[in-house]
Amino acid sequence: MSTYIGPDLPLLTSDIVAWLAAGMPQEHFYQGPELPKDPGRMVVISPSQGGGLSMEFMFDQPSFQVHVVGPQSRDQRVNSSAAEAERLTYTVDRFILMAQYPASIAGHHVTHAQRFGSGPSPLPTDAAGRAHFTCTYLLQAESGYAR
C-alpha cells in the first residue's frame, strides 16, 4: 500500500495553458500544436520533449513550447506586428521565468522553470503579415508517478 499523496497524472499541457491564462487574462491562450483559426494575436502552448523523470520518479521535467502570433498587419515590412509579437513573447517569457516558485499548478508542486535552450526566436511571418516567435521551457514538477 502506497503512502504517496499526489496528482494522479503528470502535469498536462492543458494545465499549463490554464495557469498562463489565469495569470495573463488579457491574452488569448490555446493548446497546440495546431494554430487555431483566430485572426488576432494569440499564444499557443504545445507539449515538447522534456528532461524526463528524476529523484526516483518523484519529479518530472515536462517541456512545452510557447508560440506567439502577432496581429495581422498590412505593413509591407511587418514592423508593427513584429514589435507587438516580440513584446508579447517577452511578457510571457517573464511571467514563466519570474513566477513565484515553488508554485502549485493544477495540484502539482513545481519547483522552478527555465528556458530549454536560448530565448525567444522569430519564425517566418505568415500570409496575413503576422509575426511569429517561439521559445521552449522546462519545468520541474511533481510527477504523479512516485508511489
Please supply descriptive tags for the structure shown above.
147 residues; alpha+beta; STM4215-like; seven-stranded mixed beta sheet; 2 helices; 21% helix
Write up what this structure looks like:
- This protein has 147 residues and is α+β, with helices and mostly antiparallel strands.
- It has a single domain (13-142), classed as STM4215-like (2-Layer Sandwich).
- Helices cover 21% and strands 35% of the residues.
- It contains 2 helices and 7 strands.
- Strands 1, 2, 3, 4, 5, 6 and 7 form a 7-stranded mixed sheet that branches.
- The mean pLDDT is 86.
Write the layout of secondary structure elements.
Elements: H1 13-23, E1 29-31, E2 42-54, E3 59-69, H2 79-98, E4 103-105, E5 108-115, E6 121-123, E7 132-142
Parallel strand pairs: 1-2
Antiparallel strand pairs: 2-3, 3-7, 4-5, 5-7, 6-7
In short:
By secondary structure, the protein is of the alpha+beta class. It is built from two helices and seven strands. It has one domain: STM4215-like (2-Layer Sandwich).
Q: Give the C-alpha Rg.
A: 17 Å
Domains, number = 1
Low-confidence stretches: none
State the end-to-end CA separation.
9 Å
DSSP helix fraction: 10-25%
CATH class: Alpha Beta
Corresponding CATH architecture: 2-Layer Sandwich
How many individual β-strands?
A: 7
Backbone structural class:
alpha+beta
**What is the string of SSEs from the N terminus onward?**
HEEEHEEEE
Q: How would you classify the quaternary structure?
A: single chain
CATH fold descriptor: STM4215-like
Characterize the overall form. Answer: elongated
What is the averaged pLDDT score? 86
Number of helices: 2
Major sheet: size, sense and barrel closure? 7 strands, mixed
